[in-house]
Specification:
Blueprint (H helix, E strand, L loop, with lengths): L1 E5 L4 H5 L5 H11 L3 E5 L8 H18 L2 E7 L8 H21 L3 E4 L11 H20 L4 E5 L8 H11 L4 E6 L10 H8 L3 E6 L1 E5 L10 E3 L5 E5 L8 H10 L5 E4 L7 H18 L2
Helix pairs in contact: 2-3, 3-4, 4-5, 5-6, 7-8
Length: 289
Amino acid sequence: MKIGVSSYSFAQYIRAGKMDYFSAIEKAKEMGFDGIEFSGLPADVVEYDDRIAFAVKLREHAEKVGIEISAYLTSGNFNQPDEEALKTEIARLKAEIDVAKTLGVSLMRHDIAYAIPKGIPFNAFVDSIAPSIREVTEYAEGFGIKTMFENHGRVVQDSDRVEKIIEAVGSRNFGLLIDIGNFMCADLDNVACVGRLANLAFHGHLKDFRTYEYGTNYSLKSTFKTRCQNNLKGCAVGDGDARSAQCMSILKDQGYDGYLTLEYEGPEDCIEGIQKGLDFYRKWEAQNV
């Protein structure tokens, strides 16, 4: 496996003006990561042609620095109010695939939905949007890019729902970005979920949280609620309750050989949090050669 870092992990510094996407590339290389993924492009690059030009600059800078761009991540919502809106979203995602192609990546993540239409069973909803997801991945396949979705956003975090989506789309070009920590956001046993879904993974995220059960007396600062009203707080990989070493061992045992990309979203200094996670991974790696 390879170890990478997400641009999202540097968001704290990027928002504060301490870093931009180009210096994030340099920092990732300096820290010893094999690759960096981009979670969207900066919000101020809004015109399609500008985003393509920006992607060219990012790819060229990564090549100059000597680090691989491992994947491109974008939003996605197939829960649209009508057919016209759905066509617009499909066209937008195809344009994002053009960005991914420009970055030189072979993997692009897009989201599925952020809510299910009220009164519609999940399986029926997935069956209704599967042809649209298939259209997007078929477009990507023409450029040698595989598409994937991530187990996040509560709606698609359950392992059985992940399997249902992949089965309904029915394309070997479409799979899963498996995030080790995100299963916890839906109060799931993340080790069991990783064991069940490892064979479907195209790409991986390392993320960790500390868990505070419902009713626990603790500070609410920097926490968020899970589906079942427990609370989570982001932390460095290895410092929380995600049992990351066990999850990585499961992936390795099942033959996963792609990237494990570190996502840090805790309140501490992001560089320190990223470094702690990288040190944790290197220690695990040395013990699992």
